[in-house]
Amino acid sequence: MSRREPSWRRYLTFWRPAIDRDVDAEIRFHFEERVADLVARGRTESAARAEAEQEFGDRNTYRDRIREIDHRMAARRGRAEWLDVVRGDIRLAWRGMKRAPALSAMIVVTLALGIGANGAIFSMLDALFLRPPAGVHDPATLRRLYGFYKSPPPAPDFTRQSFNYAEISDMQAALGNKARIAGYGMTQLSMGTADDAPEVQVSDVVGDYFGILGVRPFRGRFFTPEELDVRTPRLVVVLSHRFWQRQLGGDSTIVGKTIRLGRRDFTIVGIAQPGFDGADVMPFDIWRSAAARTTATSGRWWDERNGSSLFVVTRLSGLTDREFSALREQRLASRD
Amino acid sequence: MTTSELDLLQGTLDLLVLKALSWGPNHGYGIARFIREGSSQSFKILDGALYTSLHRMEERGWVESYWGTSDKGKRAKFYRLTTPGRRALKSEQTGWEQYVAAVAGVIALRPQEAAQ
Fold first, then answer.
1. Which residue of A32, A69, A306 is the best one to mutate when testing the B interface, meaning the one whose CB has the most B CBs within 10 A?
2. Which of A112, A160, A204, A275 could, after both became Cys, cross-link A290 (CB 3.0–4.6 A)?
3. What predicted TM-score, i.e. pTM, was given to this entire model?
4. Do A30 and B49 count as a contact with CB atoms less than 8 A apart?
């Protein structure tokens, strides 16, 4: 990327590349295959290239046309996600308002400001204020991250509430050691494969999730950095205290034993402190290291930039929201 | 090529792409090859137009895409038909067959038959 580009354009590319890069990769693949085919039929390399170009038509025109379609699609999907965000926040706000009306009014203003701040690459809408989750240390400095996606006009901007692993890695790299972020997913799995197997709420964890939330283990421990390394498959879980009590009868020798989720057995390494069941409205029963997603057939899913299923949480640790945003924008702007 | 010929081909392109995908998921190049071989090169479709058609149909919900690995082990974007896509293929194909039959009927027609 050119050093002369204005800084705002640089952090736009942080969110935009997936679409443009995918279109480029698709067209590149086409040309590589076509040229290889033509060479195999006896053309010289340069003749094959020229022929492939001619068959394709004006590459730039088509590339732009395809990118435009994909941006439009992404914007539409983003709007659907944004509606989910708003719906979730309204539901949450309503719950909170019944308990603490004055505080909620303030939060609604914060939400409104967050929505209006279209200049910022992201903002933090704080669900945690509304219903401080049990067991979470100092909810006031905890934030969920939302991505504001700037589309090239005329496509509208939109907001995303989830990210993929590659994006989380990029964000953490951009933030350096000033702030730590962790990702967590939401999924339902059955305990075993029997027809009547109970469904459990499972969260796939990326990074120091428990550390950032300030939760302590009740029994055993949380995940080690090795267990969190997604490049190697790891089948380890932490149970919520409630799940351990209700579903497993409070078995005091449970740590070290295995639990079957779907078709695989996971080793229980710990139980979280009583009362803690995640930082969202939906309570979790079990947390897995996201390395559980790595299987013989999963490929390098952590490099995949299509789709997103992980929410991101961070601790401000001495920074204000504004400082945090500025820090990240500055870091992104200095990336080349 | 006149404008009407071009329009005909563009409308038909979606049908050809849907038909290619009815045999299973494929990447853009695989679809291009399928059409090129199937048509015995008797008409030319710009590959760029083919990709535009694919993305447009993805937007319309007729096909969906995912990244996979090609026969040669390269990362490639694959497309597959959705249920609305199968439905669209059926109706486009019926429309096309009726069109061909109608044109063939007119071509085979003799003036004295027309007068009756």
1. A69
2. A204
3. 0.48
4. no
